[in-house]
Amino acid sequence: SFNMNMYLFVYDLMQFCGHSWIFTNMIIRFMTFGKDSLADTFHSIGLVMRLCQLLSVLEILHILIGIDKSHLLPRFLQITERIIVLFVVINSQEEVQGKYVVCVLFLLWNLLDVVRYTYNMLARMDIYYLPLTWLNFSLCIPLYALSVLAKGFTICISLPYFESFGTYSVKLLFPFTFSIYFPYVLKMYLLVLFAGMCFIIRNLLSERVAHLGTGNIKTKRS
After folding, report:
1. Which of 52, 73, 154, 201 has the most CB atoms less than 10 A away?
2. In this structure, how many other beta carbons lie within 10 angstroms of the beta carbon of residue 76?
3. Where do transmembrane segments lie in this chain (predicted)?
4. Global pTM?
């Protein structure tokens, strides 16, 4: 319906504005302060980044209620990956927030999302540009793979801090003694992360073939 389409357009616009602000802020800060800007990237743009990622949870709801025709499982995995790495790993360990890999990770995320939400906004109006369509369905594959590597590296460098501070590690005494050592949980999640990457990349390749591989790419409607 028109109302649902307008709602999705406004949602995509809000996400585009948020991620564009983050991306532009990071570029300007790097051009102004050089490498010194990388260490406090999280403190500069972390709040907006967290708001955008929390807002992205709505995309799961959009698919569940049928107003978005995307596949549920790949989108769910992509969103939960970001939520876990951003809120559980980076946000909880101040020592990790100043690492350069956080800046790289945020740059990859926002580059992906600026392209994706731009494409989505125009698609809501039945406007399709060939270069943008190609970018949206081609650039996402290598950038997503690189972002997974950055997530994995971020988790690896966070492990010593989780071990030292005991963050999220708990010992339950009732009804029986049971301990949860969180670094082990993160190590197991690394396996899930890379297994999920294979599944998501396969899905992205299928979407690319569906939109670009048939020779009938949509162009701007006159």
Report:
1. 52
2. 16
3. 6-27, 47-67, 181-201
4. 0.90
Number of domains in the chain: 1
Q: Could you list the pLDDT tens digit for every one of the 222 residues in the chain?
A: 788 999 999 999 999 999 999 999 999 999 988 888 888 889 999 999 999 999 999 999 999 999 998 899 999 999 999 999 999 999 999 999 999 999 999 999 999 999 999 999 999 999 999 999 999 999 999 999 999 999 999 999 999 999 999 899 888 776 667 788 999 999 999 999 999 999 999 999 999 999 887 544 554 432
